[in-house]
TrEMBL record:
One of its GO terms (biological process) is proteolysis. It holds the Pfam family Pol_BBD. The keyword Protease applies. GO terms for molecular function: nucleic acid binding; peptidase activity. It comes from the Eukaryota. This is Retrovirus-related Pol polyprotein from transposon TNT 1-94.
Amino acid sequence: MGNDMPCKIVGIGTIQLRMHDGVIRTLTEVRHVPDLKNNLISVGVLDSKSFKCNVKNGVMEIKRGSTLVMRGFKKGNLYMLQGSTSSISESISVAEKNIPDLTYLWHMRLGHMSERGMMILSKQQLLGNHTVKELRFYDHCIFGKEHRIKFPKAQHSTKSTLDYIHSDCWGPSQVPSLGGGRYFLSIIDEYSRMTWIFIMKHKNQAFICFMEWKVLME
C-alpha cells in the first residue's frame, strides 16, 4: 500500500456496478481487502484491458473505443466514481426489467443501428454487460431510413431570351448595404444567363421590384 504495509486479500471475485447512465457493468478479478476503507480501481489494470483514461478539468472518463464506460469527478487527490455497487439479485431484476429499454437506448445512441449490428457489438463486449434483445417497431426509425424519390428533371427548353426565367429572394443580411438594404431579388434569364439584382430594404418589396423589371423588359 502507500505506507509500504501489506494488506490481506481474503478473496477474489466479481462485482457489479450501476453506472451514471443506469447501465450495470461488471468488474472481474476484484480483490476483497477488509482493511481498506474505500474501494479502489486501478487505472493500470484498466489500461491492460484496452480501456482508455482521459482526465481533464477535474473529470476522468474511462472509454473502450468510443463508448464511455465510467466517469469520475475529482475530490481531493482522488477521482470518485459516478455510480454505486449493485447486488447480484438486484442486477438480475434490473436487467430483466430494463433489457428492452436498454436495447432501445443503445439503438438511439448508435444512430438507429440495426439489431444485427448491435448484437455484433454486444459479442465484442462494447455495450457493457448488456445483452441485446429484439427491437420494437418504431415509426420514426423506419421512415428515417426510407429513400425519397428524386424530383423529376424539368422537361423544357428555351429558344430565345425571356422564354424562361428564374427568380429568388434572399435575406436578411446581417450587414446592410450602403443604402440600408438587407434583401435582394435576383432574376436570371435561362437562355442568355442575363442577371438582374434588385436591392431591397424590406422583403415585401419583391413584387414591386418584379413589376419594375417586367415594365423594363416590355
